[in-house]
Amino acid sequence: MNLQRTLISTLTVLAIAGASANAETLSITIENTMSSGSFFFTPVWIAAHNGGFDSFDAGAAANNFAGITSLAENGNTGPLSNAFAASAAGIAGGAQATVAASAFMGDAPVYSPGESTTFNLDVGDASVNRYFSFASMIVPSNDLFFGNDNATAYELFDFIGNFNGDITINIFGRDVYDNGTELNSAANDAAFSMNDGQSLPESGLIRNFFSDAGDGDYLDSFFGSNTANGATISSAFGANDIIATITITQVPAPSGAFALLGGGLIFARRRRSN
Fold this sequence. Notes:
The longest helix is centred in the N-terminal third of the chain and has 20 residues, at 2-21. Helix 1 runs antiparallel to helix 7 (256-273) and helix 2 packs antiparallel against helix 3 (78-86). Helix content is 26%, strand content 24%. It is built from seven helices and eleven strands. By secondary structure, it is an alpha+beta fold. The strands form two sheets. Strands 2, 3, 4, 6, 7, 9 and 10 form a seven-stranded antiparallel beta sheet that branches. It has a four-stranded antiparallel beta sheet with strand order 5-1-11-8. The chain starts with a helix and ends with a helix. Strand 6 (131-139) and strand 7 form a beta hairpin. It has two domains: 1-22 and 255-274, no CATH class; 24-252, Immunoglobulin-like, CATH 2.60.40.
């Protein structure tokens, strides 16, 4: 009897440990919640990591964050992905992806107002890759983007790999940043800033958008311009408007741990009958 209890307890511990060590999969939905005729955003870079990757810092010099600068100026996530892969978080097995909205009839795969997409992300070891990061460029703009400058702001899992529950991230206009590398001017936008830093320079510091007088006027200056999808900008967003929503849920895992435990119970019973 004592042997049976010991065996069951051991198998239970192994089952729990095995479950936490297995790769976890999350379902992620990204949506542009802006009103019709408003701004778009580019394919979104996302990552699950150990909390050790800082994609940018508000108030810091943009030239310290080449990855986020490339994203903010032209929507290119490649340098940011490379920086993540080379970081301690990436080397530790962090997961990342760049997610575009589905192109419609040849349109550019940006997120139009009202458009969303849902996909799965395999995060690896949930007890390690506990935190979530994201970034995307606002278009049209010279170098506006949204993202999280606190690497541990969004905790997906606790320290033993248990999912913390469904997460909804509402991104407001006040969560948009100005990369500070290109002067805010619609006339100086050069095809929505896809010029990789060839526009007129600005302060060089990353700052919260809507913190300077005239930021709202800058958005209004794009009224009447056409986007890559052929739409015409006719409305802007404010600091208190929700411009995007990211929803994260857990994809149910196979019941392998329970199968293991069940097998242990059968084994124990067989041992007892012999």
